[in-house]
Design goal:
The chain is α/β, with parallel strands linked by helices and about 325 residues long. It has 14 helices and ten strands. The radius of gyration is 20 Å and the shape is globular.
Length: about 325
């Protein structure tokens, strides 16, 4: 759980490897790219990927866009948070996909040493301002954030939502219902889970069934009625198949974890085309798209390369 781990972990990568993008297995690894014809840019760049599905497919998209511009591109998958961060700061990795709120808190911890970072906010502009503040101190630049956001969320069955007229978490709070919740054990004390649901929405949690975040057992517990609600990811494309729906976080309890490219500032100065070709992706990529992309790889067993290429082509970016 990215948000629940955020207060205790140092680097965003270590948080993301725990659970993100519908899968931590990573699907198939991206391959080394080759120079694309037609572009006017030149040089060799390395795109970083964190090894889980969502990071892999977005990194592949960055690589495809950079190849189209004329760069020779390699994708490097790095499992170590320290090596990942160090390579990005040194410029041996030019750009990586990250998550705004999580990474802003990580950088604040790196820069200040605090173990209780406050850089992240439910407000995207505030989060991006802090990301710039701490990124500048590490020689890093955030490019345009996408509409797509990968956050913790709460799901109930469609029948439960219909029976109690629920579409938002505020609706659940106003209903006065006392609900059982399936979530990781840390939920009991973490501000984005039970305490936040209570403080922000007035939701009464009667019990917590400890199950892994957004896992199949957790979703099955909700589907079967063993619990009323479960903690899942906004990009989980399997919820509808299981008869589950998300209750909208209408008061913005969760921080703005929009997908955002992070580039080495010196490399970006040398090759401004990096921003020119990657930023247009932010204008089209949605949360629903992320869920679909994850499911195509993990559920339908399509390759990372095919999924990335097909998506970019469908949006007119390739």
């Amino acid at each position: 759980m990215r948000k629940l781990a955020a207060g205790a972990a140092g680097l965003a990568l270590s948080l993301l490897l725990a659970a993100c993008g519908g899968s931590s297995s990573g699907g198939e690894n991206p391959t080394v790219g080759t120079t694309a014809s037609g572009g006017t840019a030149s040089g060799s760049l390395t795109v970083g990927a964190a090894g889980f599905t969502e990071s892999n497919v977005i990194a592949q998209m960055y690589a495809d866009l950079l190849q189209k511009a004329g760069f020779t591109v390699h994708i490097k998958t790095v499992a170590s948070a320290e090596i990942f961060q160090s390579s990005l700061e040194k410029g041996t990795i030019a750009v990586v996909p990250e998550y705004a709120a999580t990474y802003a808190d990580s950088l604040q911890t790196l820069v200040t040493g605090t173990q209780a970072p406050t850089a992240a906010s439910p407000d995207l502009q505030t989060t991006m301002a802090n990301l710039k503040k701490y990124g500048d101190k590490r020689g890093l630049t955030a490019l345009d954030p996408a509409q797509a956001v990968d956050q913790n969320a709460f799901a109930v069955t469609k029948d439960f939502a219909s029976k109690h007229n629920l579409t938002t978490l505020s609706d659940l709070g106003k209903s006065g219902l006392s609900v059982s919740l399936a979530a990781p054990a840390e939920c009991a004390t973490r501000p984005f889970c039970k305490p936040g649901l209570s403080k922000t929405y007035g939701i009464k949690i009667s019990s917590i069934l400890p199950l892994a975040f957004d896992s199949l057992p957790l979703k099955q517990a909700v589907k079967s009625g063993k619990v009323d609600m479960g903690e899942v990811s906004t990009t989980d494309a399997t919820l509808g198949q299981l008869g589950l729906v998300l209750l909208t976080d209408d008061k913005h309890l969760q921080n703005a974890d929009n997908l955002v490219p992070i580039a080495n500032s010196k490399v970006l100065q040398q090759h401004p085309e990096i921003a020119t070709v990657i930023n247009p992706l932010a204008q089209v990529l949605t949360t629903a798209d992320l869920g679909t992309l994850d499911n195509q790889i993990d559920g339908e067993r399509q390759t990372v390369q095919d999924v990335a290429k097909n998506y970019l082509t469908s949006k007119g970016l390739l």
